[in-house]
Amino acid sequence: MTLGREKVCFLNTPTPLEQLKTVSRELGIRFYMKRDDLTNYGTGGNKLRKLEYFVKDAQDHGATMLLTVGGAQTNHGRLTAAIAARYGFRSAIVAVDPYPGEISANLLLDGIMGCQVYLVRKDGRTPDSQLLQDAVARVTKEWEEKGEKVYFIPMGGSDELGALGYYDCALELDAQIREQGITNPHIIVTVGSMGTYMGLAAAIANEHLNMKLTGIGIMPYRDITGHALDYYERLRKTYGLEAVLRREDFHINTDFDYGAYNNPVEDVRKAIYYMGRREGIILDPCYTGKTFNAVKKLAERSELSKEDSYIMIHTGGIPGIYTKHHRSEMEVELMNYMHII
Ligand SMILES: Cc1ncc(COP(=O)(O)O)c(C=O)c1O
């Protein structure tokens, strides 16, 4: 129970927290990774912590089907499909995206887990948000006419309920930090739809946890700290939180978003290869690769403190490396590792 809300506990927590020795030595910082990519369903990732709360709420509402939205390659959708399968719900994903020409990566996993995927065609006039809303209404109606009770989970699971997953994670981290004697912890996390960052930020402020938090933006936002403040205010009102935060309290670096969501970026691929070749840890091209690229570049520019212990949360997303537009770039770059003898 967190802030008065219950969850279904299905996660293999605490997830490992380990120092990455080679990366630490080479970058000249103390660098740790919290392995939320190693969570236990649907190949893992951050959304599972949020889904512990959504599943409980769906069960309490007597739902029989989980429906969520995102891009065609949504990690959140894939993990919703996994937990739906585990708890006996049907599942569906609605995305305003073209068919990518192949069923690979998350789409492949969605199908394996029995999730219905609806890709909405653009008509050149209607805004995406309207298309999405209309399609969700249509798909919900269709399934409810077949006798299902549909429970809707918002984009990325980033609402007041979903944020509790990373509120819990901050408390878990705090216990691990004490146990391992880590000094001046500084958490680094990707900011997408922001539920992960916000859960951590809310817990740090309201549970008086001794840790700094920096978010790394991976896509352009019109006003990212304004969005953070609005989101936090919603949490504060919903749960009666004590801490009052201002815009300046949200530290989110937007210098490494490379201008778009989920775009192939050479620097990011280099960061992925760097991590893979030193630690055997796979990062993804959309979220964690961009985030680690930011850490690496900041360290190389001596913009990170020697005093802090940086803890990057690995939020998963690994199926993303198998999508066509990322995979094809990597196939070219990695060809010289292929030997036919
Ligand atoms: C792998 C991965 N990392 C990070 C994020 C960002 O989390 P949030 O949307 O809560 O900001 C996502 C969101 O989809 C994700 O799939």
Can you give a write-up of this model?
With 341 residues, this protein is an alpha/beta fold. It has two domains: 17-45 and 159-337, Rossmann fold, CATH 3.40.50.1100; 47-157, Rossmann fold (3-Layer(aba) Sandwich). It has eleven helices and ten strands. It has a six-stranded mixed β-sheet, with helices on both faces. The protein has a four-stranded parallel β-sheet with strand order 5-4-3-6, with helices on both faces. α2 crosses α3 and α9 (266-279) packs across α10. It starts with 16 loop residues before the first strand and ends in an 8-residue tail after the last helix. Residues 45-46, 75-76, 156, 158, 190-197, 284, 287, 315-317 line the site of pyridoxal-5'-phosphate (PLP).
